[in-house]
Amino acid sequence: MVTIKDLAKEAGVSLGTVSNVLNGKNGVSLDKIEKVQRAIDKLGYQRNIQAVNLKRGISNKIAIILPNIIEMKYSYLYENLNLNFQEDNFILELYLSYNKKEKEREIIKRIKEENYLFVISDSCVDNAKEYGNLLEKCLFIYRNIDGGKNIIRFDYTSVIDHYIQHWVREDIKQGIIIKDEFSDFSQEDYAYLMTKAIQENIKLEFIEQHKNSHLLAFELAQSENHSMLFTTSFETAKLIHNAYYFSNKPFPKIYTFYRNNFNNDTRFRLYGLDYGYISKKILAYIRKENTAIEPFHFSFLDFLPQNRDQNKNNIIKILAVNTPSIDALKKLIPHFTKLTNIQVHIDTCTFADMPNELGKNTRTNQYDMVRIDMESLPYFAQSYLLPLDFLTIETLEAHFSASIIQKFCQFQQKIYAVPFDPSIQMLFYRKDIFEDAKIKRLFYEKYNKELTLPTNFEQFNLLLHFFQSGVVDYPEIKKGSALIIDDEGTLASEFFVRYYANFPSIFKNGNILFNRKAVEESLSQLKTLYENAIRLEKSWWKDESELFQQGEIPLLLVYMNHFSPISNHNSLYPVGFTSVPNQRPLLGGGSLAILKQTPNQTACEWFISWFLQHIIQEQYSQLGGVSARNDLMDNQSITQSLPWLALAKQTKFYGIRENVLGDQAIHLRQIETIIGKAVKDYLLKDRSEVATAEFIQQQIDLL
């Protein structure tokens, strides 16, 4: 095993120098950093984090005891915890008890001999006292255990209610309830299920597994006919289905749990259970995060049946700006058409042309719905949009944060739209560059400062200067960032994020009044970006994002809905993300609304109801759309490829877009057009900050 002594000898430097390089400390010359890195590459050194922590007197090991790794809830839990613990520099060590008490006791004995920070266990022993002195650091999961101090499990009350309601709708009168060896239903859960069934005149027979699951499945399949079977285990459900395949009995309806992901498995009636909830509770406990966490179960995939023949000639036409989310929606529309027989056509226009197209539609009545940018929603709501009276505020609150509802749905307490692709600005960066010891040293030698992520625009501009002429060992880097120089909308966004970093508002005493000093400072900061960025023409946010993906720029400040198609898996380089400098991002993205003149109101309402379905939202997000649903921003399969969703949720989609003054809408798009034109002239025609600031306020006063 290669040690730091070996590295020191190979590099010809002291042990202290090697230690400082490994720990990313300043004070080591570039020459010595290069020598140590060459030694690491040559000898294949891998740092032993466990040994480092042992030396410090702390442990970074966490033990997890599971009955098996085949059951979905266990494999899903282990994968999620392992991914998150790696990011936290914890080592997760797996022990399998196979649901045997003696095997678990052997594991407990072995764990006591090690130094573990925590022990996570789905235990099959009778009492938690068997864990002895481990009890204080134990987290018991899924099943109840007598004497357990820290227990994380589901409250199945609402789930059972959903099942009973579903069985009543399906006219199910009798069935078999199977308690297999891995069920985490408590006796109280089963009692509640039986009580609710009796109240609805549903006769349920309870069977507890005392033998091999395979044998039990075949005995069920070869006994009398059963119309419905329910088991909490997806693996047991598969055994039962296979047993019926080999029998001469008709297949029953087999009900079971599945994770919160769509699965068109016609063998079963699947209930989407939020298995990610257990891992989130574990992580919050270990990280000492005092946050309220609630499960979001997808429940059954029940799309409302519609009269397809009645809808045969119906067509919905949607007007939209072309975004990655629109591309994602187009891929799902065939499903809506299959359900309803309603055709959906989407026409796209430019961001600048949208107001003209909406005005034209009042004469042509060409469109039924619109994907409208959120900054324009209040201004256009009463003129062009139909209030969505079929939706309640409670329906929206069940899935979206209060800030999303306020900014993307409501105006003057009426619901005019639903969130389509809500977004906030974020700063994306190349992680490999910001973690490179040589780059850190080069930055330190040049500025006598540590290389860190910028918390204000002065620091951001310093990084632009640093990356201006490229970076050693990274020949693909051309400039520090990128700037679209001929689009008024994007230039306005670049201006406003800097303005709000300098001043809190564009309003004063009930009027639109820009702070002159903040305008001049924002323009100056933008000039630095202009001078140190790749300049793009006839481009859009996606073009900047592509430059980042190709590695040509290490920093990009952009709306996350335009960055999301570049997932963590697709990027050529490791992606980091953080809040924008000064932590006052602009809100962006848009909403989906129904236009007033539509003759197809009912069809449009069906479309919105379909779009809001959790399964559709999940697929939409997987395809590159952006959803602000609370449950999806915690969905493991989505956040693994789009980890910045966690930051958006953490900030509750906090952002600024001042489009309402008091209770009156302002024409923010018009103001942004003025800003964009003024900024473009300032940059391209070399106008002064003072003259440009004066021009902006003069134009605003004319509105």
From TrEMBL:
<feature type="domain" description="HTH cro/C1-type">
    <location>
        <begin position="3"/>
        <end position="46"/>
    </location>
</feature>
<dbReference type="InterPro" id="IPR006059">
    <property type="entry name" value="SBP"/>
</dbReference>
<dbReference type="Pfam" id="PF00356">
    <property type="entry name" value="LacI"/>
</dbReference>
<protein>
    <submittedName>
        <fullName>Uncharacterized protein</fullName>
    </submittedName>
</protein>
<dbReference type="Pfam" id="PF13416">
    <property type="entry name" value="SBP_bac_8"/>
</dbReference>
<dbReference type="InterPro" id="IPR010982">
    <property type="entry name" value="Lambda_DNA-bd_dom_sf"/>
</dbReference>
<dbReference type="GO" id="GO:0003677">
    <property type="term" value="F:DNA binding"/>
</dbReference>
<dbReference type="InterPro" id="IPR000843">
    <property type="entry name" value="HTH_LacI"/>
</dbReference>
<dbReference type="InterPro" id="IPR050490">
    <property type="entry name" value="Bact_solute-bd_prot1"/>
</dbReference>
<comment type="similarity">
    <text>Belongs to the bacterial solute-binding protein 1 family.</text>
</comment>
<dbReference type="GO" id="GO:0006355">
    <property type="term" value="P:regulation of DNA-templated transcription"/>
</dbReference>
<dbReference type="GO" id="GO:0042597">
    <property type="term" value="C:periplasmic space"/>
</dbReference>
<dbReference type="InterPro" id="IPR001387">
    <property type="entry name" value="Cro/C1-type_HTH"/>
</dbReference>
<feature type="domain" description="HTH lacI-type">
    <location>
        <begin position="2"/>
        <end position="56"/>
    </location>
</feature>
